[in-house]
Amino acid sequence: MVYTLTVHLYANDKLDSIERIKAKLIEAARIYRKDKETIDWLVMQDVHDPRAFTIVERFENESSQKYHLENPYWKTFDPYVVPLLDKKMDLRRHEELDTSQDVEVPV
I want to staple 86 with a disulfide (CB 3.0 to 4.6 A). Which of 12, 24, 43, 102 is the partner? Predict the structure, then answer.
């Protein structure tokens, strides 16, 4: 089962915060995608609110996060991003549902 984290970030209203967050997220994605047992590390920006961003981190399993947390880059992320945010990051943990087989939907 694929273990997935979603993280929602909301930039503060300082003029350069959006561009700084965007650049850091792109940099982070390019680094974290290379971590062992990382399926993908996606970053996106809301189409209606440019201050809203989402990260989708996909791992082979829950224990795969350890490689992400052991990456030296991880220690640079929060100190850079947190001061640029209007509110705390909203982190959610998920297990992706298996969609490889047909199911019968109850009536």
Answer: 12
CB atoms within 10 A of CB 35: 20
Question: CA–CA separation, 11 vs 6, rounded Å?
Answer: 16
Tokens representing 105? 């939907």
pTM value is 0.93
End-to-end CA, the chain? 27
Contact 25, 53 (CB under 8 A): yes
Domains annotated on the chain, with CATH: 3-95 (3.30.70.100)
Q: Tell me: the pLDDT tens digits for 74-96?
A: 999 999 999 999 999 999 999 99
CB 80 within 8 A of CB 24: yes
- The structure tokens 């990382």 sit at 38
